[in-house]
Each structure stands twice: as structure tokens, then as C-alpha cells.
Fold each of these.
Amino acid sequence: MMKRLVYIFNMFYLLGLSLWVGGMFLLGFLVEAVVRIKLKEQPLPANEVMNTIMDIFNIQIIYVCIGFMVVAEIIKLLVGKFSWLEFDQLGVTKRRYVKECILGIMIVLAIYMGSFLRPEMHEVNKLKNDNPTNQQLQIRSKRFHSKFVNIYSVNMILGLSLFYIHGKEMTRFRKTLNETNESN
């Protein structure tokens, strides 16, 4: 029963991670490029469409993914600590809590983007749209956008690192009984 529980929550962890990293890739590269190209002549509607899409992703979707991943980590921790089953936590990294630290950094960056940086960016965009000739607002808006791109890039690299670590854990080869007997 406990094994199945860990397996199920491991799937939720991978689902959350794949939606998060895949969504960043899909929205950051594909959707933004398509919206900007299709609405090149209308920058205000293009900006509004992208802001709406990114708001939904940065708040609802990423926070659900964070929930999946944190609950899965808590379940694994509790099962490993309180279960009578011996839960073998495969260590493929030199340090013990590397995955958890990477996830923690990703969560902090996502909360910073979704709860703090996004409202400021919307305020600057609103001011920029009201006064399109103000160059300082144009520069400030571009800085916010580049900050978002940089944080997305860092989170994507960290997410891919989690996939790598997780994949390495899943493909660990153990010595079989025959290999153990042959080496003796």
C-alpha cells in the first residue's frame, strides 16, 4: 500500500514538473512568438493577450504544479520516516537534499514572479500604454520583460536538472544475484 502511495505521488510530482517546465517552454517560445507575429500591427492587444495567458500560467497553473510537487515530497518524506517499509531513497547526487533545494529555489522564483513581479509589470505596462511617448516607461517595461525571461530561463534550467536527477534515479542499475555471486 505504501509503495503504491509513493508511486502515485511520484507520478503527481512528474506531472507537476512536466506541466511547469513544458508550459514555460511552450508559452515562452511558441505562444509569445505567434502572438507577437500575428498581432505585430496591434501591439496593445498583443500585450494584453500575452499578459492574460501568462497571468493564468504564472498563478493558477504553476501554483497547482507546486502543490503537486510539494505534496509528493512530503508524502515521500513521511513514508520514509514513519513506514515499516524500508524506503530506499536513491542518492545520485553527492549531497542529500539537492532535489529539494532545486525545487525550493524554483518555488521561490515562481512566487516572486507570480505574486510580486507580475503586478509591478502590469502597472508599468498600464502606464506605458497610457503614455506611449515616455521613453523611461518603455525602457522600464523592457527591463521587466527581460527580468521575466531571465527568471524563466533559470527556472527552466533548474526544472531540467530535476528531470535529469529524477531520470538518473529511475535508471539506477542494481547488482543482480548472479552478478553478486560471480564477483565473489
Amino acid sequence: MKKLLFLSFFLGVLCCYAQNRKLPIDTVVTTQHSVTINGTAINYTAKTGTQPVWNKKGEPIASLHYTYYTRNNVKNRAARPLLISFNGGPGSASVWMHLAYTGPRVLKIDDEGYPVQPYGVKSNPFSVLDVTDIVYVNPANTGYSRTIPETGKEVDREKFFGINADIKYLAEWLNTFVTRNNRWRSPKYIIGESYGGTRVMGLSLALQNQQWMYLNGVIMVSPADYKVIRRGGPVSDAMNLPYYTAAAWHHKALPKELQDKDLLDILPESEKYTINTLIPALAKGGFIGETEKNGVAKKMAYYSGLSEKEILEQNLTVPTAYFWKHLLKDKSGYTIGRLDSRYLGIDRQLTGTKPDYSAELTSWLHSFTPAINYYLQEELKFKTDIKYNMFGPVHPWNNENDNTRDNLRQAMAQNPYLNVMIQSGYYDGATTYFNAKYTMWQVDPSGKMSDRFSFKGYRSGHMMYLRREDLKNANDDIRDFIKRTMSNGKSAKY
């Protein structure tokens, strides 16, 4: 009997100490660090924690995890820029640009971006923390961020998981963040990668017209513009060719006449052919003449590394998945990566219409997953049993009423300070560099704001910053963009 009472007591004590696995809704951990950037030692503060999203009643319906870096010993914080960073997906955490691009710590990888063991992080000598403070935001259900059911209800997914819902609640969240951290007077920039490009195009107007928060710059990294990617048709199909040219050149799969030239010498050729000949040809569909069709197939083969026969068999519209599978089929037998076509994969069999897996993504997850878990828990001291979602449960995602491209146009028209820079890797086969250029061309049909756009290309893929040379160049481009677009006392007027 005594043993039974003791066991009951012991189990009761355990129950008292047992805790549900949940994230604190509103908390922050502060640590101090230093880094050397471009030869200058910089001391900085890192704050990582959670901040709520509230409903109209003031009740928390989500808690977003963020990491905020500020340079120490800044005399005039109001004059110092703030860079607000998002990744994409939708459903992707902010880990990618946080731990490999602009932040003060980056992955331990080789100079081309491939994983090495032991996994971990190292100082980033090219970080833009020397010229701007940075906050990395994880949208709902990504990273450590989580939705919270309202009292007696299920989570209302429509408030979070769609293009317009995402933009609306994030704009509100940023208002709170800027207020809490006394950054209303600072010049502000937002940067978004992949789907984050769609997100920041929409946020530029939402921040301006709903939160009265005006920006100096929008930076889109390998942007996903669904007005092109998901619409299909002649323009969308044709726009892949310059990417095919770049990837084939990298793998030495082009005719000698092209292969002997530099990449940047041949891409303008492929781009010109795409705009002036291929789009009009594909627009004719099944009514294109046989002679013209054969001529187009020959030229596409010349610029893509595929055979005329393969191109004709697909009626001149070659899917990207087919290209990744077949470019090297008769050469080395490898597949090439989707997000970065420098990466190689091995399929079960040579035949098929698409690769078995994305060679580049599996390689990246090798490095990023252990590094972000180590870094947040051990270096930034944010302790939690919550799983860090590299990709979170956000689907189904509502893509309806996507007006983000025009939102960016309107935000720029209303705000003479607002400038845009696009960064893309030539070997990105998911959100291609030429699609990014096309997006830039289409934002402002009037052409009156064309001098406020800039495009930067790099000899790597979707996450061009994984290649050390491009990590330096891309950060330098951001640094120059910020310096160039600071108002420096100039009035916001036309």
C-alpha cells in the first residue's frame, strides 16, 4: 500500500513538472557578438524572440519568431537603415538568407556552396551589417513561428495562408516591430527571396497605404512572379530559353561556337532571339508553318544543348523538368538541379520526363538544417523544444487576386524615394533570371520610373550567395544600393 501511495505521489509530481511543447508568445533573448566585415571589426547586438500577431479583439492568433541585429555604438540610430528580410516558399523559413547571405554568420560550406562536415557556422566577412541593421522574419508556421487557435475555435487559416492574407498580417506585425524598436525614423528596405519577391512587392504598398510606412528600397532575390510562372502560354514557355543557354554553357553542352565565348557574351544573343523570334513563333501554336517550325527548333537546339528532334517532339515548348532530366543524359547520365543547375543528381534510370529529386535542395538541407538549429539554440541562446520548420505547413495557399506587381508600381508612383533592385543567378531554373528581367520590365508600363530599377546577375543559382565570389558581389550590390538610395536630405518629390 505504501509503495502504491509513493508511486502515485511520484507520478503526480512528474505531471506537475510536465509541460506542453509550445512557444512563448512574446519573448526575447539578447546576446552580444562581434564580426569583421571588409576588414573592419564591428560589435553588434543580436535579439531573437517572438512577437504576437493579434486579432481585432487584441488576442494573439500567431507568434512570429524573428532575429534582429543592430550595430553597437551608433550615434544616430534614426539615420541608420533597417533591412527587413523574408524568404519565400510559400512556407519557407527565413533561414536561407539569414544564415548564408546578409547576416553576420554564415554556413560552413566550400567556396562553391557544397556541404562540408562538421556542420556549423562561421563569420561572414561580407555581411551588410556594417551599413544597415537587419531583422529576419519567419512567417506563420515557418521556423519557430506558429499560429495560435482563438478561444474555442480552430485556427482560421484564411487569415494567414494566401498572398493577400500573408501581406496583410505581416504589414501589421512590422508596424508593431518598428514601434517597439523605435525605428520609425529610419530609412527602411525590404528584401524577399523567391516567393518573397511576390511578398515584398505586395508589402511595399500595404506598408505604405495601410501602415503609413514608406520605404526607400525593395530588393527581390530570385523573385517568383506568378503572373509569368503559372500563367503558361507562349511568353512563359519562351522565357526559359536564356536559362537553358546558361545552364548548358556551364555544363559545356553547347555548340563550340557558343561554348568558346564567355557566358555574358552569349546570353544577350539568346535573350534577343527569345524576344524577337521565339515568342512570336510560339504564339502561332499549331498554325506555325513547317519551315518556320524546323528553323525555330534548330535555333533552340543551338541555344539549349538539346537536340532538334527532342524539341520538335514537344512542339517547341520544352518543360524545364525535361531539360533538367535530359541535358546530360547522353553525355554523363547525370540530372541537373532545379534551383541551381550546377548541381548534379543520379536517377534510377536515364529515361523519363523529370528528375527523381532536386539535387541542389537535398545538398542545401545537408548544411542549413543542423546549422540553424545549432546557431539559434547555442550561439543566440534561444532554447525551445519546438521544431524549426525549414518548410512549414501552410498549404493549401490562396493565390487568388494577385495584384502584387501593380502594387509595387503604385507604391513607387506614390513614393519618389522608392527604388527596386533585382538579384538573380543565371543557373536558377525555378525562377529564372530572364523571368526576373521580364517582371522588372512589366512593373511600370509608362516607363517613367525605369531609372529606379536595377538588375544584377550572378554565375550561380537561386541562392547565388552560396558561392563565395557571389556572396561578396551580391552583398556589395546591396550595400551600394542602400547607399545610393538614401535620401541624404533630398525632398521626396518629382
Amino acid sequence: MSACATSPAALRPVLAERGQREVFCGLTGIVWLHRRIQDAFFLVVGSRTCAHLLQSAAGVMIFAEPRFATAIIEERDLAGRADLDDELDRVATRLIARRPDIRLLFLVGSCPSEVIRLDLGRAAARLEERFERSPRVLAYSGSGIGTTFTEGEDACLSALVPTLAPTLAPAGREAPARLLVVGALADVVEDQFRRLFAALGIGPVDFLPARRADAMPPIGSGTRYVLAQPFLGETATALERRGAVRIAAPCPLGAEGTRLWFESIAAAFGIDPALADGVLSPPARRAAAALAAPRARLAGRRVFLFPDSQLEIPLARFLARECGMILTEVGTPFLNRRLMAPDLALLPAGAQLAEGQDVERQLDRCRAARPDLVVCGLGLANPLEAEGFATKWSIELVFSPIQGFEQAADLAALFARPLARRALLEV
């Protein structure tokens, strides 16, 4: 089936809900972004609650010196007894003196800093001038006011786009075509993708974000970009303002999704379909074979996806088509039909889609459906487990390398394990 074909799922009305939500804030994006950009530092301007959140979410890094911290807004700051700009300058200057290896400093806004109207964009410009652009200093919002946690990555990358160098074109000619893969990926996934692009004869290939600040890609009219993460709507808009053209493709999750992703890119670059088939068929067959074991546990099971990460629609496509699961409801915090069209077209016609959240109503529908597995945030997982449901934490799906052929079985196993654990507990 063509990834861009129109299907009943793509046209079906969506249940829109606007009520109480249960999500993490965008600050948690720092946990995977700081692992990806290896010489960047993320300085959150927020409260002690923000600091505790990051310490909890990144507790596995307790034995290494992290590349994130919190400039804590104290009561005296809120009371107007301190100059917040001076305080922030002092903290940032001390940080750079202590960590001269930092090449890119992000000032990350939080709910408290936004409520008191602290202008971090102006602060970033002031500090960058003070540091003479070494390091570069950028600002973005990780606030949880009206957003979900993956939007932290979107805000970070969209803040990076205006700073990217322009692509250079020979005099009187168009800029040469180059591919940009957008979305924070694990290094092992990037390496696998690069090998496949090389075998397909596609290049040059850039990744945003790059592993180091001085390796950020150029951008311009010759850039064709493809999303590796589905939640990067603002980044996509920023890239298009710079002249980049999007390649529509499903998210590279599972054997089918990854193959369709690569095939869409190959078609955009004019690659011979026979060559693409020869390159992609062997890893696709290996991935499909590896999926057999987790599929045996997942096939025929019912799954309910709460809106949390914006990964829900491509995950639902993967679980239904490649793992044989039955979709009872697919919730997503925000539905970008333009970016999601290829994955929407592949959803089963009977799946209920929901955009936004009214958590109490959604919980009622989940209890009535009695699914075998619930995919949700941490705030809902423990209460649902106490009610007898098997759950999968959606945030783990962002922390883990799940894209690509080699990770397809690992992705399925993330959903199979809660069912296996539940079966052991019931014995």
C-alpha cells in the first residue's frame, strides 16, 4: 500500500477533547537532547520543582557529570528583591568558567520563568555577546503550560534552525540536493541509517541535531528533509521558511515503517526502485523475522493509547499492522494531519482517534474497553496497574532507540514485556 494513499482512517472524524491533561513538561526533552549534542549544555531557568524533575528523570546519570542544570528562581527573585538578569548572567558566567568544553549553551524556559516574564531570548543574545559567541547561546521554552513533553525537543530544534549556515550554490546555479534527517536519534540508529543511505547512493546526508555543535548542518533551497520523529511541527515550519522541502513519509518504526520511510526518500532522490529493493529487502526480512517472537505474544491483544508523546499514531500503525494488535483507542495530544498523513493512511479503518485529552472521560472509556495493554504516561500508569491493567510508559519510547530495521523487534518487545510480567503475576 502506498504510504500516502487516502484511507478511511485518514478521513475519519477525530474525537476532540479539551479538558484536564496528564502529561510531563518539555523540560524532560533535555534528558535525551543532552546525550545527543555532546558538547551542549542545557541551563533550565526554573524552580526547585524543575530541578527535582530533571534529577528524577535523569537519575541513571548520577555517576557522570551531566550537561544540564537548573538556575533556581528563589523567593527573593519572585519578590523583586534581586535583578534576575544579573543573577542569570552571574550563573551562566560561572558555568562557562567551570566548563570551558561547552560549545552550545541553551537557556531553557520553564513555567516559573514564563509566568514572571523573564526574557530568555534577550538574555541569550546578551550572553552570546559577552562570551564572543564562544559558546553560542540560544533560548527556547520547555514550559509545560499547554504543551507535552516531546515539544521540548521541537522547541529546541526550531531555535537551532535560524542559526544554521546557508547552503552554498555555484554562481548562477541552484544549490545541490542534500538530505536532512530531522529528530534526535541514538548514535547507533544514525550509524545504521548512514550505511543504508550510502548503499542507496544518497548523499550528502546530514542529521539535525548533529552530535556536536560545530557539525550542525547547512540549510537552504537544495535541502530535502525527512522527519525521524513525528512531533517536530514547529521545526518543520522553520526549515521550510529557510527553503527546505519536506519528504512525506511514515515514521521509521518497525520493518514496514522503516522500509516505507527509506523508499519515500529514495523516490525523492530519483533512486532506481530495483536498487532500493535490493538494498532494503535484506534488512526488512531480518526485521520481520525478528518480530515473530514478540508478535506471538501481542497478536490479538487489545491496546489503548493515551495521548502523551505524539508518537501514538505511528506506534498504533506499527502495533496493528506489524504486531497484530487491536486498537481500541489512539489518543494523541495534537494531530498534525499534514505531517501524520502517511501514518494515518495506514491505520486500520476501525480505530478510534482522539485529539487532546479529558483525562477522566478517557479513563472511563479505557475501563469500559478493558484493553490488555495501556500505553500512557507515568502519572496514569501506577493507578491503572493497581486496577489490574498492564501498562507501558510512553516516555520510555522516547528514551529508547526504536527507529530502524534493527530496532523493530526491540520496539515490539517493549510492549510484550508488560504482558509477560502480568502473566507471571497472575500465576
Amino acid sequence: MEKEQVITLIDAFKDFKEEKNIDRPVMMGVLKDVFLTQIAKVYGSSDNFDVIVNVDKGTCEIYQNFDIVEEVENPNAEMTLEQVKADSGDDDYEIGDQYSKKLPLAAFGRRGILNIRQNLQGRIMDIEKANVYKKYSEKVGELFSGEVYQTWAKEVLILDEDGNELHIPKNEQIPGERFKKSDNVRAVIKSVEMKNNTTPYITLSRTSNEFLERLFEQEVPEIADGLITVKKVVRVPGERAKVAVESYDDRIDPIGACIGVKGGRILGIVRELRNENIDVIQWSQNPQLMIQRALNPARVSSIDMGQSEEDKVKVFMQPDEVRKGIGRGGCNIQLAGMLVNREIEVWRELPKDEIDEEEDVALEEFANEIDDWVIEKLKSIGCDTAKDVLAISAEDIAKRADLEDETVAEVINILKAEFED
């Protein structure tokens, strides 16, 4: 029985020593603590016990220290001279000395040995969790590359070289992309959380702005070397992204360096992002200039930044430029607004030769035909006259003034009738 118990503990030590990436001082402390905890359960106290662990050999020696007294009051911590002599065969001890007796593992019994092993394995798991949490917490924001282990409807599971699990939830995947087992995937480490004291939940992201920024750092040496700085990244994942860059060396063209010869550098990033369109633009502290650059190739006629940061920015364009400026689904204008942290509205600017010279009419003149609240809605988007409203498409009016399509159509018919009469 003793031999079986020793083998059981040696196996646990070997797992601890060979398979777990745990520092030696931590290992020694945990092992001693586990044994002392079991000793306290059996003997009521561990104060007079010494635990000597040899991690390399996977062995453990336990010594029980006794004070030599004339009369024993605590048999777990005291012995008489006669008891010491009978136990050791040595009569050189005196009253007041201390006698150390090696405690065999069998003294714990089979159940005690199993408790020690279970406690040891539990502590190993706790330390592993803490190490994984610390390791990946320090890597948040860094690029990670791994192999897909399993795919589910709501997430993809990836394993690192140590077998730790990392997750890409559905909302952190680029829309439309599909993964299969053994695919190699790159993503940015977004967060590390401890949920109900289980294994740390490590979240990876392919939709974050940081992911695109890390890809540029990897593909463009000038960024990695600090010669070019990525000032800001904005994305609509799977659709379009804008990357504002700046060079600290006048001899370096930051846009050309990011795109590469014949687009060689940026093409790799585009493929990684499932053909997401990427616009690289020159950074500027001037928000108007940034808006113009962000909306390129659409040509901007003029920009009204408003009176305060809270005001919407009005961008005026010729009618044939509006579609390019807004982009598919409003994506382009949305990203331009994200670059300058402002909401942007596009206004059509009609050529002078198309402006009807007939006298305009204030919206208040139509109060008998159009409800006051509708007039207020129209005025809130800068339409004070009939021609102001007619210069904007019905779709834009409905969206910007938050009106029903039927209401907008009725208003336009009323206003057009005024000039047809």
C-alpha cells in the first residue's frame, strides 16, 4: 500500500514538473502547502511539521518535530525521553531538546493520499489558469495566428501551441467569411476574461480597427520601423475601410509605401480581409481637408462645419458627385464622419444655370396645406423655402427629416404645384 501511494504521488509530481510551465519557487510552495493542509486536517495543526520536497525526483519527506518533556500533554507535538529512546534507540537526548521523526506517507491513509493528489491537481489547474490569463492579458492588441480546431454557428475555436483555447465569436468575424478545421487564421487579441473561475475566455477579433492596423504594421516595414505612423483606422468590416497615415520623413510617400509597388503590399491585406476595400489617405489636423480626402474621388464643392462640434457637417456636391461621395449604403460618408468624429450630411448643389429664377416661397406660406410639425421637420434640416425642399431628393428628405415616404411625396407634390400654377 505504501508503495502504491508513493507511486501515485510521484506521478502527480511528474505531471507538475514536466507538463506544466510553472516556476520552481511556485512549484515548491504549492507542493508544501498542499501537504501542510492535509497534515493540519489529520493532526489538527501543521506547526510542528517540516515538508521537504524534491521536485526533480518527485519525492516528498515529512518530518514531525516533538518537544522532549517530562509529561506529555499533546501527543502530536511532545514526547518523553523514554518514548524518544524507544523510537530512535538513541539515549543522547535531554529534556528540552527537540526530536524529529520521519512521517511515512502511509500515516495519511489511502483517502488522505487521494486528497493530496486531488488538491495538488486543483492547485495546478488554478496556476495554469492564472498563467494563461497573465500571458494573454499582456498581449491584448497584438496579432495572433493559429489553426482552427473547431467551428460552430456562433464562434470559431482556435488552439495555440500549448493547447489553450481562443475564440472568434460570430460578431468578431468578417461578414460572409467561413472557416473549416485546420485553416490558419490571423486575428487580433481583443480581450481576456475569467468567467465563473473557469479557464480564461480569450476573444479574438477580425473586425476591430486594431486588426487592420496590426496587418499594416506587419506588411509595411516603414510602419514597423516608425517612419510612417498609422494615425487612425475606421472600418465597416467586409465593406470598406479608411486608413489615415503620416510620414515623419519628407522623402517617404506614406500612401505609396502602404500600397506598395503595383499594390503588392495592400493586396495581401485586402485578401486577408475578404476583399474589403481599403482607402489609404494622408493624415491632416484640418478636419475639412480630411473630409475632402476621405470622400475622394467625389469632388466636394464646399463644406460647412457648423458653429460647434455637435453640429452636423454639411458637405455640398454637384448632383453627379453625390453617389460617389455617399458610397454604397452610405458607407463612404459614414467612414468619413468617423475619421473626424462628426456626423456628415451630403447636400446637392445645383448649377446656377439650372436654378429657376422664379421667386421662391417660404414654407410657412403652405401652413394651410402642410402640417406645422412637418414644416418644422423640414426646417430642421435647413429647408426654409419650397425650392430648398425641391432641390433635395425625396429619399434624402425622408432620411434626414425622419419623415414617412408618403408624407414627403405629398409635400413635394404640393410645392411643385405652386410653381406650375
